[in-house]
Write a structure and sequence with these properties.
This protein has ten helices and 16 strands. The protein is elongated, with a radius of gyration of 24 Å. Strand 3, helix 3 (105-122) and strand 4 (128-134) form a beta-alpha-beta unit. Helix 3 crosses helix 10 (370-384). Strands 1-2-4-3-5-16-6-15 form an eight-stranded mixed β-sheet, sandwiched between helices. Strands 10-12-8-13 form a four-stranded antiparallel β-sheet, with helices on one face. A two-stranded antiparallel ribbon has the order 7-14. The protein folds into two domains: 4-181 and 299-384, Zn peptidases (Aminopeptidase), CATH 3.40.630.10; 184-295, Alpha-Beta Plaits (2-Layer Sandwich). The protein is α/β, with parallel strands linked by helices. The longest helix is centred in the last third of the chain and has 21 residues, at 264-284.
Length: 387
């Protein structure tokens, strides 16, 4: 097992890659320059098996170890940025107005490139390491599309692993847990249908604004009174559209929001009860509802074998005391969940220090974390594919 000092010689070059990518962010599937940069770097390292155009702009490279035949594992980095105007004032700040790497995908890409350069030079493993550079993570579609286009079968991947930086954890430290580590994401809309009229005569209406307000309060009881308080569940109403005029009670209002849950049972319960709760409240006021629920990203679930491999790789790099193996589940979602649904594996967090939070205009990836991410990937490959 290799310590982080074994990867310090890659630090300066990885910083150069990361800051270049940071200055030229791209969104969604339109990461054409980013994927070209990645493919050119991989080829310059001496990797012969490189495929582009998977999920439009995804790049996948395979490195064969020198230890003989063995299984194939996948390592994934996301490449896309966010439609946010940067406010860091760094010399390497985004040069593209209204776009920035506010989630650290530039760092993720640079770390996997660094691992690629190391692994192709050493090949101290058996089997194959497949490097997955994914577009459209922020859209929540890229991972699913790569899976649907046959990524796992095409490259014979038996296990798959992901990593994300996390502000609030010290640089050089890792966090992971077995089982649910990031929430499933659902969205819903509720149309409340009442009877409109003049704001001066509310008794002659069925006021959907009042009904909608009662529904908002009622839905919170699904968290506070209908589920186990030890089960993480978040229901947030983020939209309320009513009349445009001060003196008009509208015929209808539209509510919308998100649900974050960390178990399939809780997800099923919430989808069912959102409708029941809203419908019963509306009926009590003489109103009606239309309910629309959409399941987006699934639960990010770490499998036990994959978690143990990830723990061994991280602990070998930084020691037991710098790896939290019981990190609390995060209620944000991650489309890597689609890859973990297709193949077993694990997702781990790498500390980004006391920086601004993810998706914040003041966020920046801490370059001091690059050797730790590179080292984690190398240790993971050499552990999972021990020669």
């Amino acid at each position: 097992m290799r310590a982080v000092e074994d990867f310090r010689n890659l630090h300066a070059e990885a910083v150069e890659w990361r800051r270049h990518l940071h200055q030229y962010p791209e969104l969604g599937y339109r990461v054409h320059n980013t994927s070209r940069f990645v493919a050119e770097k991989l080829a310059s390292f001496g990797i012969n098996h490189i495929e582009t155009g998977i999920a439009e702009t995804g790049v996948v490279a395979a490195i064969q170890g020198n230890g003989g035949d063995g299984p194939t594992i996948g390592l994934r980095a996301d490449m896309d940025a966010l439609p946010i105007a940067e406010a860091t004032n760094k010399t390497w700040a985004s040069k593209v107005p209204g776009k920035m790497h506010a989630c650290g995908h530039d760092g993720h890409t640079a770390m996997l490139l660094g691992a690629a350069k190391y692994l192709v030079a050493t090949r101290n493993f058996k089997g194959t390491a497949v490097l997955i550079f994914q577009p459209a993570e922020e859209d929540g579609q890229g991972a699913e599309r790569m899976v649907l286009e046959g990524l796992m079968d095409r490259f014979g991947i038996s296990q798959v692993f992901g990593m994300h930086n996390l502000p609030g954890i010290d640089v050089g430290k890792f966090g992971i847990r077995d089982g649910s580590i990031m929430a499933a994401l659902d969205e819903f809309d509720i149309v409340v249908k009442g009877k409109g009229g003049h704001a001066a005569t509310p008794h002659m209406t069925i006021d959907p604004v009042v009904v909608g307000a009662q529904i908002i309060v009622g839905l919170q009881t699904l968290v506070s009174r209908n589920t186990d308080p030890t089960d993480a569940l978040v229901i947030s109403i983020t939209k309320f559209k009513a009349s445009e005029a001060y003196h008009v009670i509208p015929d209808r209002v539209v509510l919308g929001g998100t649900v974050r849950s960390v178990s399939p049972t809780l997800r099923d319960f919430t989808e069912r009860q959102l409708n029941v709760c809203a419908e019963n409240i509306a009926q009590a006021f003489g109103a009606e509802i239309e309910f629309n629920h959409r399941r987006l990203e699934p639960l990010t679930f770490n499998h036990t074998q994959g978690t143990n491999l990830a723990l061994a790789a991280a602990r070998g790099l930084v020691g037991d005391e710098s790896v939290d193996d019981k990190i609390k589940p995060l209620m944000v979602s991650e489309d890597f969940a689609y890859m973990l649904r297709a193949r077993p594996g694990a997702f781990i967090f790498l500390g980004n220090g006391p920086t601004a939070g993810l998706h914040n205009p003041a966020y920046d990836f801490d370059d001091e974390g690059l050797p730790y991410g590179i080292g984690y990937w190398v240790n993971l490959v050499e552990t999972a594919l021990a020669a």
